[in-house]
Structure formats: C-alpha cells, structure tokens
C-alpha cells in the first residue's frame, strides 16, 4: 500500500506490503510502581505509548526517493512527526528512530538498488494518559 504513512508531513511513494505495518502499545509505569510486601502490584501509570514498525519496499518509488526517505529516517534528529493508520482513522505523533536496516538487492550500471527497509518508530510522549 503506497502512501500509508507520512514523515514530517511528507508522503513517500514507497510500498508497505500486507502485514508490513505493525502497531504496538506499552502502558508505562512511573517510579512508584512495584510489588508490595503482600505480593500485590501497585501501579503508577504514566500513560499509553503507541509505537509502529514498518517494513518498507521501494516498489513505486524512484531510487532517489527511496534514498531521501532513508536519509530522513537515519538523520541524527531528536524526533519526527509521523502519521499512521490507527483504528479507523489516523494517529499523528512525535516519534524517534534509533535504528533501521535494509538490503542491497543488486548493483547495475553504477546504481545501487536497496530495498526492504525496516524501521521502528517509538513515541516520544504517551498517546493517552
């Protein structure tokens, strides 16, 4: 599916295959959470963080457009504004990227053909408190 997400307001003409976009959540506790002496759990809920992992294919994008996306995502930036499908709507939030990887498929006539970019987007702030 092309145009499935945006990064910093830009949609790239790359493809995310069926099953290639995964969302997850983490309900994060603060410093006052833990097991009590009697064995019960004491929660100190900060909020729910929504995170995404994307498997990105170059299909539909030029080599240059794919390279631009790679450069944006691998930039030493604190965060990016990203938009992803969420339920029956869209979720836009600040996320950071710490690592990614892709594969060199082939070299031909002085060109490098990269594909299969895998990126984890981690929310900077809770989506719900």
Structure notes:
With 129 residues, the chain is mainly β. It has one domain (6-29, 46-123). It has one helix at 63-73, and strands at residues 6-7, 10-11, 21-29, 34-35, 41-42, 45-56, 80-86, 89-96, 100-108, 111-123. The strands form 2 sheets. Strands 1, 2, 3, 6, 7, 8, 9 and 10 form an 8-stranded antiparallel β-sheet that branches. A two-stranded antiparallel ribbon has the order 4-5. A hairpin with a 5-residue loop joins strand 4 and strand 5 (41-42). It is elongated, with a radius of gyration of 18 Å.
Short description:
With 129 residues, this protein is mainly β. It has 1 helix and 10 strands, in the order ββββββαββββ.
Q: What Rg is obtained from the alpha carbons, in whole angstroms?
A: 18 Å
- Assess the beta-strand content as a share of residues: over 45%
Separate helix tally: 1
> What structural class do the secondary elements suggest?
mainly beta
Q: From N to C, what is the helix and strand string?
A: EEEEEEHEEEE
Give the proportion of residues in helices. under 10%
* Rough outline: elongated
Indicate the low-confidence ranges by residue numbers. none
- How many individual domains? 1
N-end to C-end Cα span: 31 Å
Largest sheet: 8 strands, antiparallel
The count of strands amounts to: 10
Instruction: Compute the average pLDDT.
Output: 95
């Amino acid at each position: 599916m092309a145009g499935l997400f945006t990064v910093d307001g830009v949609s790239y003409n790359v493809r995310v295959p069926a099953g290639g976009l995964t969302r997850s959540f983490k309900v994060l506790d603060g410093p006052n959470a833990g097991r009590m002496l009697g064995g019960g759990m004491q929660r100190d809920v900060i909020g729910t963080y929504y995170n995404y992992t994307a498997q990105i294919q170059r299909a539909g994008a030029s080599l240059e457009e794919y390279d631009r996306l790679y450069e944006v995502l691998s930039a030493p930036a604190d965060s990016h504004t990203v938009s992803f499908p969420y339920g029956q709507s869209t979720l836009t939030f600040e996320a950071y990227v710490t690592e990614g990887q892709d594969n060199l498929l082939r070299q031909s006539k002085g060109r490098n053909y990269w594909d299969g970019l895998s990126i984890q987007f981690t929310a900077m702030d809770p989506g719900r408190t």
